[in-house]
């Protein structure tokens, strides 16, 4: 392979566009896959790139299919497997797992932290990790005890120890920052690629709201695994931050004693909403619904309703509909009156009361309605959310299309969502 540069630093490579031989964009480099051997004394080997292709899918591209690396572009040849990347045993992600790892410098046994990694080709065209850009640990100076940032330097990869050892104190800020502007599903996909211990470190560093959003995008098994890494008090806080229906689904998959202990730690009101959902079967409207739709009284103005559906934390499907009820304006409500689609709100005078525009043609669901009936009703009405009303005509929640799809698809659909895509490549090599 010919390259325009002999030594490539991973931090500079991240974000670089990838092109095929005729100049069409393939995606962007997001990380480098490295094999670090614990024994044998051989330097770490870079075996491939993690490339983000359209749709924000992250796939594996072997370095054997990269024909050129130069400032601003990577050229590849052959075909690329579009199956979502998952690190194999012994593989590490340079940016996500090795950056900020602490190592010992052989020359003086001092501690340093990895800030960048350089890879180069040897005579056999194998990419080796040859250099590390590291920062020495901070040192205190003077009688006042002030500290300064440690010295930064480039060292040979064989002049450090501890590169293959997982670091309990390794910072997760770099990974979190890289996904700051991404959707929770993107960070969830990245966590699925990492070793369990590293994903646990990232989860520990996320705030409760962000971690809750990420958990909602993970398969059930991964949700349970990640939640189990948290202390019980933290786990309860994260469950409170989740949508009640997602929290109920997760608690329903835990052992009964563990679920009961977490519910006991949750705020009473949040726990009540989740316990209500746990009382329904999974494949019913009651089991599918959320207890936090947009609720308003009939006298509420159109302008106020529009302001309510603009809230950023509101899921798009739930933001498409306003449910009109008699007080109290929390589930279970007073008498259910009806629903109004946001498109109708946009056409009406802003100061008119919402009760004037209720759609009488859409009948609500009952908590015991089966999933198949819920799906048919949504398709028939061509609608994104439907109310769920009890026998005494109280609104107890709403079912949104995303929850219906989540239950209609196989339980592991997130792990295989790309397998039916037309492949731009063959098997991972």
From TrEMBL:
Keywords: CBS domain
Superkingdom of the source species: Bacteria
GO molecular function: magnesium ion transmembrane transporter activity
CDD domains found in the cross-reference section: CBS_pair_Mg_transporter
GO terms under cellular component: membrane
Start and end residues of each CBS domain: 289-357, 358-419
SMART domains: CBS (SM00116), MgtE_N (SM00924)
Entry protein name: CBS domain-containing protein
Organism: Demequina lignilytica
């Amino acid at each position: 392979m010919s390259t325009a540069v002999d030594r490539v630093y991973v931090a500079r490579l991240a974000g670089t566009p990838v092109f095929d031989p005729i100049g069409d964009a393939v995606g962007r480099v997001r990380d480098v896959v490295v094999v670090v051997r614990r024994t044998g004394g051989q330097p770490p080997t870079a075996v491939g790139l993690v490339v983000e292709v359209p749709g924000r899918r992250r796939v594996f591209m072997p370095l054997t299919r990269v024909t050129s690396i130069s400032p601003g572009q990577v050229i590849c040849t052959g075909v690329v497997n579009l199956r979502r990347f998952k690190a194999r045993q012994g593989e590490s992600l340079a940016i996500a797992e090795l950056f900020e790892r602490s190592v010992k410098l052989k020359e003086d046994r001092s501690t340093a932290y990895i800030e960048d990694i350089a890879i180069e080709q040897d005579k056999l065209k194998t990419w080796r990790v040859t250099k590390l850009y590291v920062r020495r640990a901070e040192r205190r100076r003077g009688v006042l005890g002030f500290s300064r940032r440690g010295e930064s330097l480039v060292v040979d990869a064989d002049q450090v120890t501890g590169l293959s050892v997982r670091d309990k104190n390794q910072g997760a800020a770099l990974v979190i920052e890289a996904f700051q502007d991404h959707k929770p599903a993107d960070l969830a996909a990245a966590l699925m690629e990492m070793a369990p211990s590293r994903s646990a470190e990232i989860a520990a560093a996320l705030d409760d709201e962000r971690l809750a959003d990420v958990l909602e995008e993970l398969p059930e098994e991964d949700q349970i695994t990640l939640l189990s890494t948290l202390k019980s008090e933290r786990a309860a806080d994260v469950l409170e931050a989740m949508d009640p229906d997602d929290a109920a689904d997760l608690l329903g998959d835990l052992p009964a004693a563990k679920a009961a202990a977490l519910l006991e730690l949750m705020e009473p009101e949040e726990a009540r909403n989740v316990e209500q959902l746990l009382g329904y079967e999974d494949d019913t409207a009651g089991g599918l619904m959320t207890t936090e739709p947009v609720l308003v009284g009939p006298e509420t103005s159109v302008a106020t309703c529009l302001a309510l559906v603009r809230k950023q934390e509101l899921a798009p499907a739930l933001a498409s509909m306003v449910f009109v009820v008699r007080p109290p304006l929390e589930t279970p409500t007073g008498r259910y009156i009806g629903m109004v689609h946001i498109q109708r709100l946009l056409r009406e005078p802003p100061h008119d009361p919402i009760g004037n525009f209720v759609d009488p043609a859409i009948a609500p669901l009952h908590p015991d309605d089966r999933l198949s009936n819920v799906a048919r009703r949504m398709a028939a009405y061509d609608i994104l959310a439907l109310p769920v009303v009890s026998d005494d005509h109280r609104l107890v929640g709403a079912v949104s299309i995303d929850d219906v799809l989540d239950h209609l698809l196989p339980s592991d659909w997130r792990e295989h969502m790309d397998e039916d895509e037309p492949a731009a490549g063959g098997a991972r090599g």
